[in-house]
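User: Hey, my collaborator sent me this sequence without any context and asked if I could get a structure. I don't really work with proteins. Can you help?
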Amino acid sequence: MKRSRRTKIVATLGPASDTPEMIERLFKAGVDVFRLNMSHLSREKLPEKVEIIRAIEREAKRPIGILVDLQGPKLRLGVFADGAAMLVQGAEFVLDGDPTPGDVTRCHLPHPEILEALEPGHAILLDDGKLRLAVTETTGTRAVTRVEVGGRISNKKGVSLPHTVLPVPAMTEKDRSDLEAGLNAGADWIAVSFVQRPEDVAEVKKVCAGRALVMAKIEKPQALTRLDEIIEVSDGLMVARGDLGVEMPLEQVPGVQKRLTRGARRAGKPVVVATQMLESMITAPVPTRAEVSDVATAVYEGADAVMLSAESAAGSYPIEAVTTMSRIAEQVERDALYWSIIGAQNATPDHTAADAIAAAAHQMVNALDLEAIMAWTNSGSTVLRLTRERPNASVIALTPRRETARRLAIAWGVHPIVTKDASDVDDMSFRAAKFAVREKFAAVGDRIIVVAGLPFGTPGATNLVRLTFITREHAEKA
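Assistant: No problem. I've predicted the 3D structure and written it out in structure-token form, which is a compact way to encode the shape of the chain:
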């Protein structure tokens, strides 16, 4: 199944997309990677969902990526004696370690680490930012606050801390259990929630030990202060705009999105733009004009993938949401302005053989107006360096490792194929040409670029680029 766009689509599974039939329809509509959200999916049901996706993969003969999204630490208030309280602007409100049900003057905060980390001047946001408190005094076991934005607050509502770096890891015990379940089930990507520091990602990578790639979800302002370090240690990034919009001024989120997208691309690592992209399609069959523009902006910026959350997980129109997102991406990628924006963002190649060859392949595509780059790869690193250049040609990843093909399903412009490794240079060129014809990326008389590393089967040894003519023999063997 050849997609007619380079930007990939990630779709979240949920009650609206729970059956094998619906998951298959979503894949045929354009989904490249399925997200399994462990905030709503039990680890017991995880293997069942993975197997459904793998069955569709076997039938379609096209690698499908699976992203397991860990819940992360959920910070919540305690309970109120009357189930809720009305906080008045300007009033004093205390958060403390006393488990006694609260009232309009105080409430239990069952997270002693927060009480220890809070300082005067820090903001506390309640219930997705609907209420705002300002800390005026702390003792380590209680925090006195002033209500800046009041309203009704009820039991166990969420707590957000835009100014406070918490001395807690991004992984909870639930996350550790879910992570092991995801790795055992064969997840391709693990998304780490509420990343604050590079150590949060490194901890998950240590557990994964190469069994899956790790994506850092950037949804806390604290992560931005150490962004370069987080990008370096991560295998990919997710711009989680929902929580970012709660913990920082909304008007700053678009700029952060551009910063993250460009930073990840410079590093040659996939970046996913997520949250509320087609939010109105949860209940409506068509999106708003503003949502169409939002998706288009992410595509123009060169994001590897755009993501659907509740639209595909719990909405009434999951198939329509996927097809709409796909059409938007296709239209943007046909726009000449798209390629001028993409080209203006190209990073200077690093001083490595892989980057030199990726840059050379990009120049050959432009000079010779070629349609396809055939890249033999073991780990996938060669392909990611090629896609960093955003060539105006499809990148077909030929790999003997099925897990590599699945991981590359999220990468911009990559069409992954699982095949045995090349035996020599002639075999490399011939089979690359054969696959180019078979997958309808080239025809007799066309030229393709073949990229590989010698000796074959050696990860990270990219050192060869070759121009190959498609002959009738290639077409007959396809």
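In plain terms: The first strand starts at residue 8 and ends at 12. You can pass these tokens on to your collaborator as they are.
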